[in-house]
User: What shape does this take?
Amino acid sequence: MRSDDGADLLVRPGRPEDLDAVATMFSAARRAAVPSMPPPVHTVEEDHAWLADQLAGDREAWVAERDGQVLGLLLLENDWLHSLYVDPGHQGEGIGSVLVDLAKTLRPEGLQLWVFQTNTGARRLYARHGFVEREETDGRANEERAPDVRMQWSPVPDVSVAELRGRIDVIDDHLARLLEERAQVTAQIQERKRTPGHGGRDREREREIVERMAEHAPHLGAERLALIMDAVIRASLDAAGHPED
Assistant: This one.
């Protein structure tokens, strides 16, 4: 198949003769992903041997290429999206989206996957394609021993309120940890400021923060984010021991 994004991307089943090109791309992508992903636990030689098995049929393998250059790899195993990697020099070109769409086409009854909690870019990509975060772990079950998240895509749009509330619980847990971390950093800043507390607030910087956040949260928009961040900053300053006079 060819992608419809005008980039002349060819997506086809992977073959054993693709091994060297796939291994080169995979190793580059895996190592470029640090620190979003934990450092690799396998050598390049071990990766090469593992990929040889994948292309020989251990899992369903697909490659994305342009002008004969391998730019992406997709591995499927039953209803699992096992692996998805894109050449680090060609990320942001929609190759990952093409491969995710292919996976959904090949598994119309649904898919699930594991992604590291720190890999926020991949989590956003999968979320844009309808994957929902279902479970978090401390990472003890994976080779890297790094916390991960199980995400799931289902073609059935009828999701129960209980499931949606469960997703909110996961999001709120993330949010609580981030707010706690932000409050701790705020306290450190207050110790270094000439005028700590509410009297030393930098409104220009707060405006820049809101504008930057609005780029990542267009649905909320700058006006709502300004209200949210004002409350967050006030609470952080209070927690730092600088309550309003």
